[in-house]
């Protein structure tokens, strides 16, 4: 387990080739052009073949509901991995453009293969980089049209120690839509953060609790870790108030 964790932090993969195997499994078994079946096939691979660190089916339903509430036109994911989270976001928001940031180029290619098989490659873009790279990745997003008040939804599911710093970097750009801005949903931008308890993002959790009712309105969803019901996790869903 410790080796797998080191691999995730250094190469973005568990290290035994399961991510590439998941893409091959999807292409071989999921109906082309059917996002529902692609998602179900990825879940089946994670349950029956090799565990994946996707958000998974249980927490994925919470993600879907948050996306539906936000009604985004522009969504951002931090941490592509195999493309599962971005795929769920795109499915739940058929009018949205979805951008996903991924540190590992190999993961980006796997995700693009899966998105293409699902028929959603035209709406999901993977940018290889990291928010903490001194501004280069944020500048690349700006070139894609990110600007003040344009970002309606963000899903954070990458390096847990970077959650708060990366959120603040996006806030500093002014991209997240505030609650007083006009929108289809009538709410501020929604930010969902996975794995806040397992393995944990304590500084992010403390920040959201301190800002409750001031800058953010946060719901703490009690749930489980990916693809099992033994270990507990918490997913935060936070609406930007101002």
Automatic annotation (TrEMBL):
PROSITE patterns named among the record's database cross-references: SAM_OMT_I
UniProt keyword Methyltransferase present: yes
InterPro entries given in the database record: SAM-dependent_MTases_sf, SAM_O-MeTrfase
Keywords per UniProt: Methyltransferase, S-adenosyl-L-methionine, Transferase
An example molecular function term from Gene Ontology annotations: O-methyltransferase activity
One Pfam family hit: Methyltransf_3
GO BP terms, alphabetized: methylation
Protein name: Catechol-O-methyltransferase
Originating organism: Mycolicibacterium brisbanense
Organismal lineage: Bacteria, Bacillati, Actinomycetota, Actinomycetes, Mycobacteriales
């Amino acid at each position: 387990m410790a080796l797998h964790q080191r691999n995730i932090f250094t190469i973005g993969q568990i290290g035994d080739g399961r991510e590439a195997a998941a893409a091959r499994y999807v292409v071989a078994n999921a109906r082309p052009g059917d996002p529902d079946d692609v998602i179900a096939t990825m879940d089946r691979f994670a349950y029956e073949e090799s565990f994946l660190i996707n958000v998974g089916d249980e927490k994925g339903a919470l993600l879907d509901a948050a996306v539906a509430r936000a009604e985004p036109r522009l969504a951002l994911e931090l941490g592509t991995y195999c493309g599962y989270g971005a795929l769920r976001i795109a499915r739940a928001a058929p009018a949205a453009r979805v951008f996903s940031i991924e540190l590992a180029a190999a993961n980006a290619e796997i995700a693009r293969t899966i998105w293409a098989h699902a028929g959603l490659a035209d709406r999901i873009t993977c940018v290889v980089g990291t928010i903490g790279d001194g501004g280069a990745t944020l500048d690349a997003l700006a070139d894609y049209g990110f600007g003040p008040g344009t970002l309606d939804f963000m899903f954070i599911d990458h390096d847990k120690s970077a959650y708060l710093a990366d959120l603040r970097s996006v806030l500093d750009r002014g991209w997240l839509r505030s609650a007083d801005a006009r929108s289809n949903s009538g709410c501020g931008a929604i930010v969902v953060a996975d794995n806040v308890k397992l393995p944990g993002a304590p500084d992010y959790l403390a920040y959201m609790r301190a800002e409750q009712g001031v800058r953010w309105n946060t719901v703490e969803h009690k749930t489980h870790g990916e693809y099992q019901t033994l270990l507990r996790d918490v997913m935060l869903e936070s609406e930007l108030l101002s």
